[in-house]
Structure formats: structure tokens, C-alpha cells
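Page 47, continued from p. 46.
Same chain as before, 210 aa.
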Amino acid sequence: MRMRPWFAVSLVFMLAAPAAFASFGGGSAPSEPPNRPADNAQSDDPSGQPSARQRAERLYGDAYNDVAKAKQDLDEGKSKDAEKRFRRALDRAKDAAQLDTGYVEAWNLIGFASRKLNDYPSSLAAYQRCLTLDPNFAPAREYLGEAYVELGKPADAREQLVWLVKLGKDDDAKTLRAKIEAYEAAHPDSLAVPGKRDSVNLNVTKSSGE
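Result:
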């Protein structure tokens, strides 16, 4: 069986991408791009032009690759280069979401890149948009929880932890739980939120069978 050119290109990209994210800060990295067609691939559209979804997937794939390279830049101490790549990833993800407003992975990547650029209002809005489209989209739940931790709101982060436990996303839940507990250990005063933390803890414990 002959391999289509666009599939061969995508296969190489998909094999290379996980290594780039192996040590990525946070839980699961933005979702891997689909097997996207190459620029010269035959379109399913009768007009021969790429569909909006195809164009969105290409943009998302490029944004995903930008994020991987930004992580590498950070590992090498190239913060300015990383910032440029995160901004480019953000622009591409926004274009993808504009082409396909229901593209949950694109909204999640917008939230992720915005957070890396310290634009928390935009990040939270993107995560919420993603979860409005798909409340069970675990990567956005985990990242939203991380954002709340970074904003000093561990109780809100624990609400996302409850979701992850209920969804059976053990790895994401473990990552977020560790970040919450690290924050609370460093900020004992955060434990004094009346009732809210205790109720969330009970829910997590009951759901996870601990």
C-alpha cells in the first residue's frame, strides 16, 4: 500500500514531537496535531482548496511545533527566543480557532501560550472557552488548575483536580495535585479558606478511593 506524501510528513513530525515535550513543564502538553495534509495534498473540498478545518489543523500543527521549540529554548536559557516562539504559537493558534471556532485543542493551546507569556486574563478565558466546548477535555482542566495555582488560588485549582479524578485522568491529576500541595506547603495561609478546601479534598479523596 502506497503511503500518501502528507501522511509520511505527518508521521515524521509525530515521532519527533513527543521527545520535544518529554520534560515539558506542567502536565500533559498541548494535544498532538492530527495527521495533517501537506500543502500540496489533494483537498476533500470539491473546489480543490483546503477546507477551513484543514487550514486550521495546519496552523495548529505549526503552533504545536513552535511550543516544542520554545521549550527547548527555555532549556537552553534562551528566554527571548522562547518568548518569540510562544507569541508565534499564540498567533497561529488564534488563527486556527478563528477558522474553526469549535477547535478545542486550538483554544487549549491559546490558553497555554498566553499563560507562558504571563497574560493570565487571556489564558483563563481561552481555557474556559475550551471547556465550554468540551467540559471533559482533561488537558485544559489540568492547565487551568496550574494557572490558578500560579495566581495563588489553590482552592480553585482543587476544583479542577476533582474533575480530573472523576475523569480518571490519573497522570494529570497527580501532576496538578503535586503543584497544589507544593504551593500550599510554601503558603500555609492559603489553607485558611473557610470550608472550601476541605470540601474539595473530601470529593477528591472519595473519587480516587484514597
